[in-house]
Every structure is written in C-alpha cells, then in structure tokens.
Design goal:
The complex is a heterodimer of chains A (125) and B (417). Chain A is α+β, with helices and mostly antiparallel strands and 125 residues long. Chain A contains two helices and ten strands. Chain A has two domains: 45 residues, no CATH class; 72 residues, CPE0013-like (CPE0013-like fold, Roll), CATH 3.10.530. In chain A, the strands form three sheets. A five-stranded mixed β-sheet of chain A has the order 8-5-6-10-9. A three-stranded antiparallel β-sheet of chain A has the order 1-2-3, covered by helices on one side. Chain A has a two-stranded antiparallel sheet with strand order 4-7. In chain A, strand 5 and strand 6 form a beta hairpin. Chain B is of the alpha/beta class and 417 residues long. Chain B has nine helices and 27 strands. In chain B, helix 1 packs parallel to helix 2. Classes of the chains: A alpha+beta (125), B alpha/beta (417).
Chain lengths: 125, 417
Amino acid sequence: MKEKEYICVLCPNSCTVTVLYDEGQVEGISGHGCERGREWAENEVIRPMRYFVGSVTVRNGDYETVSVKTSDFIPLEKAREIGLHTHSLCIEAPVRMYQVVESDILGMEGINLIATREVHLKNGA
Amino acid sequence: MMIRKDLVIIGGGAAGLAAAAACRERGIEDILIIERGDVLGGILNQCIHDGFGLHKFHETLTGPEYAQRYIDMLHTRDLPVMLNSMVTELSSGKILTVVNRKGLHKIHAKAVILAMGSRERTRGAIGIPGARVAGVFTAGVAQNLINMKDFMVGRRVIILGSGDIGLIMARRLTLEGAKVLMVLEKLPFPSGLPRNINQCLRDFDIPLYLKHTVSGIHGDGHLTGVDVVEIDESGEIIPDTAKFVECDSLLLSVGLIPENELSRQAGLRLDPVTGGAVVDEYGQTTVPGIFACGNVLHIHDLVDNVSLEGEALAHGMKLYLSEEALPAAGIPVIPGNNVRYCLPQHLSGHAPTVISFRPSVPGKLHTVRFIQNGKILKKKSLLKINPAEMERIELDPELYRGGGELTVDLVPGRAES
C-alpha cells in the first residue's frame, strides 16, 4: 500500500488530502473537505484532471484576444497540447460571452473551448 | 460648475463594483463610479484563470466572468459610471478633481469610497542592481501583455517572487509554449496560495527555489541572463553562491502596494504595515465620510473577500448619509503574537464586526484569540495558518463594546472550550 498527499486545487481551502493506493487502485481517501475534493483526489492517482484556461487571437475586435476556458475538466497531460493549439487559433470579432470558440477540442468529445469575455467590433461598428 | 453627489466611488474594479451594488441595494440612489480604464472590472479583466467566486457564487469563475456578474448587476440597477476618468485630487472636504477627455470636473460628494486597488512593486522598489535592459517585467504587466494584447514576453523565463500572480504566470507562459526555468523566493516559505504552488508549478515540474533571489541583471539592450544567489538565515545574500542563468525575460512577482496617493491628499491616517487606511468596523477612515475597501485598504489573496469588504460598506454608508456622522471608534485593535496585522484598526462597538488578519508565520493547528482587559472574549481553532492566506472572523460587538484595547493573537494548538 502506498500513500500520497495532495493539496486540493478546487477551492481556496487548499485541503491536504491523503490517498492510499495499491497498483493504481485507490484504497482510501482522507482529509478532503467535500465530496468534489474526494473525487478530485481519487483522480490525482489515476489521471489528474484540470480546467484549461487560455486566450485566442481576435481579428477586428476592441481587444486583441478573447479569454477562453474548457467546458469541463481535461486530463492534465493534455494541457500543453491544448495550450499550443489554442495559441494557433484566430477568430473574428464580435465574440459573445460563452460563445463556443471550438467544439470537441483536439478530438475530445464534449469538451468545448468557451469564450469567457465579450469582444466587440473595433470602433463599436 | 460643481457637480453634487451623495456617494462617489473611486475605482470600478472588484471592490468598487461590489460596494456600488450593495449601496444601491440599501437604497442609496445618488451614486457615481469613477473609473480610470475604458471598461469596468479592473484587474479582473486580465486574470483569465479560474478559481474566482467559489465563496461568493459557489462556482469557479474566471476573472472576466466574475467581473461581468457585477457589471450586469450594475446595469440592471442603472448605476452611472464615468469611464476613462482619473481622479487627480481629493480633499478632506470630499471635493474631487476629475480629468477626462471632456476636461476638468469638480465634484462635491457627501461621502466617498476609496476603491483604487493596488500597484505592483517594481525592480526599483526592490533594488536589483545590473543592466537597464528590456525583458524585465512585473508579473501583472506580463499578464496584461499576454492576456489582453496578445504579446508574448519571452521564451526562457525566470520568475522572481512566489506571489500568486507570478505562479499563475508560470503556468500561463508554460501553456503558451515558453520554458519557465525556475521560480525564486527570498523567504523560507512561498508567498502564494498552496493550491497555486500545486496547480501552477508542480503540475508542470517548474522548480521553486526558496531562500534564493536575483543579485544581478545582464544584457546589452535586451536581457541575456541573471545571477541567482542563495539567501542565509538572516535574509542576507551569500555572495559566493551566485550562478549565472541564461534567460530572455525576468518576471517580478514581489508584492503589491495599495494605491493611496489620493488618501494622503485627503489627510487620512495610513497604517504603516498594511499600507492602507486606518478604518473602523464600518470601513470608515479617519476622515469622516471617506470609506475604503479592497486592495487599496490592504492586499487580499482572494477577490471574493474584496467583494465582501466592498459590500460590507453599505451598512455604514446608509447610516452616514442619513445621520452625517458615525459613532466614534474608541477601541483600538492590536495585532498580538504571530499576527502581522489586523483590520479594522479600531472599533466603535456599534456595528457588525468582521476582523481580518494575516498570520506572520506558517504553521499547523493554531487558535486565534480575541483578548480584552486580560479576558479571552472569543477563540477559534484554525487547522493551519499561512501568511499567504488572510483570515476573516466575525466578532459580536456586544462582547467587546464596553471594554478597552482588543488584542488578536495566535497560539499553537486547539481551542479548549
């Protein structure tokens, strides 16, 4: 049986969660402050999951970029790849709040890239 | 021509927006928000990472989303805003001078809320010697360039200081394809939140070197590298440990300074530890009718707490505007052992009271105690304490109203009932 400590990233409480596991099988979790934290810690051993945030270049907007996030958790190991992909994207203004910038990003079914800000056309056009 | 207003709020960021929404909710009609930038939301606009709003909205939001929630509230409540406008003067009589493209305006307010936020400590402020080269940024400026201007600051990056903005930028730069070589922290413990150490550094194998700093900056025109040195127990540089590390940009995340130039003009008292105004439990400064909230008052680690502080002003504001005075604050609050500072600095004992404080050392289980005239009024166990994390605890004014000086301290172990 192995034991590993994680600092939960889900909220500012930053709970120290201890996970007992054996050959990829979780045997026990303690120290979590909520049910979501328990699930999160379980994933840490098997496959760590994170939200991705970044920005996408915007043409003809009152901002040069629009901030984006993934619609759900993504595997941490995919974060860099999503970052490089997002970096290469370019969309046209205007952009609505929560507009889907790209669906099923990198072939991940149901994971969409979503705008977290409005971008208006330049000069209010 | 003098414009007259009941309430002027200086700053349309997280603090100002929350204060405005709450004051309107309390029935204060004649409000004006003055904002320097061309949009509301302040620094939230460039904080595109998530983790905001967990206390306030019970979900995780990015900075722009969090700001939008408040902007929507303001629009539905029809609150007037002056954008692209800079307050250049504030008198103790609450006369404001405002400059914008239309010219110079004088506004006479019955009450003012200071919500100007903070600015970053710079290279000059921490005195790093060496070449004056391009490629040295404060973390917030780098954040603005990357997130708002689509401008990448570098490819091989060193971050000095383990403040939250620096940690967030370490991850952001990594995801944009840059190599973050290391994060250096002068202190023996990180100054950012533990969850940011985890999700910004550990997730991407970025090393954090505690008790290290930068002692020299090299380059000709543009940064080519820095000298990284170790720090001894007393905080002094150990000279023979200097190592040259090649990099093309250096980000400084070495703290924030409350932006209090207007406060000084108005002649209100500042706390040398927080760098912000001395206030009572209403949030009123030492100049009657001038209130303060958010990072201009003291540096916060969570925007949710900034919003709470802004909203809490509504109670006293309503009272001040109808009575033209608030009860005198005669009870000083003193930070005791293991407490770096606490707010409010003095109390009247006539309003709901929340004591905010910051521990001076990190540690496991501690008990916070509120002591007056040698008697413990209240105590509460905290599972861990961390200088990076501000604590907020409610205190019933009935408990302390009749007494003198109140001390807040932290002692190891659990509170016995």
